Amino acid sequence: MNTRLDTSGTAVFDRDGFLIDPGMWSETLADRIAQTDGIGPLNEAQYGLLHALRDEFSKHASVTALSHVCHLVGQSADCMQRLFPSPREAWRLAGLPNPGEEAKTYL
Asked: Which residues are within 8 A (CB) of 71 and not within 5 positions of it... i.e. 6 or more apart?
């Protein structure tokens, strides 16, 4: 989970695999991480959810109710579990910063 995609400083991750600078995120980077992690290429529903996670984080600067994020993209409350191996993986793929130990237990 200690993902490092290149050595040029383009994308650097912390020891838990979270992007250190969320401003460096792009759909292309998310797709590369997903493929590196064995998830495969991302689809439109997954990209929509990642964008919604990023939008909610930019508004609240914290982990928001994941079922609410699913609702925002017109999905059922369990969309995180259906579209990603775990909500934590969705958070990582969205390029959001490490939420801390307590929050990771809820992801």
From this structure: 77
